[in-house]
Amino acid sequence: MRLAEDAAIRRMDFGKECDEYMKKFTERRTGMTKLERELIVKRYMSIEEPRDYDVYNEAGISESTFYRVREKAFYKLAFALRIEVYKEEAPV
């Protein structure tokens, strides 16, 4: 019985963590456009796991536009959440 209780508590904690992350995502001043937020939420933050194809067709944009907008959105999101990573240049 203890095993089921532990699993239920972990599930509640996970749900709480997800809620807190979504709150940060929506409240944080990311500088993201409505389209950028929409694409990230639909593709990566929904219960079902849609393919990129499904998301950009539903949004009515081309594949190349989807990837360009997604890249900008991740860049802005990384800076807003302070998780950006800098790439070192190779010595000349």
Annotation keywords:
92 residues, mainly alpha, extended
Secondary-structure map:
Blueprint: H1 2-27, H2 34-44, H3 52-59, H4 63-80
Helix pairs in contact: 2-3, 2-4
Describe the structure.
- Helix content is 68%, strand content 0%.
- The chain is mainly α and 92 residues long.
- The protein has one domain.
- The protein is extended, with a radius of gyration of 17 Å.
Distance between the termini: 63 Å
**Would you list the SSEs in sequence order as H and E?**
HHHH
Biggest sheet details: none
Class derived from helix and strand content = mainly alpha
The helix fraction, in percent, is 55-70%
Q: Can you tell me the residue ranges where pLDDT is under 50 for at least 5 consecutive residues?
A: none
Gyration radius from CA atoms, angstroms? 17 Å
What is the residue-averaged pLDDT?
Answer: 80
How many DSSP H or I helices?
4
What is the percentage of strand-forming residues? Answer: under 5%
Shape: extended
Counted up, domains total 1
Concise structural overview:
The protein has four helices and no strands. The protein has helices at about 1-25, 35-45, 50-60, 65-80. The chain starts with a helix and ends in a 12-residue tail after the last helix.
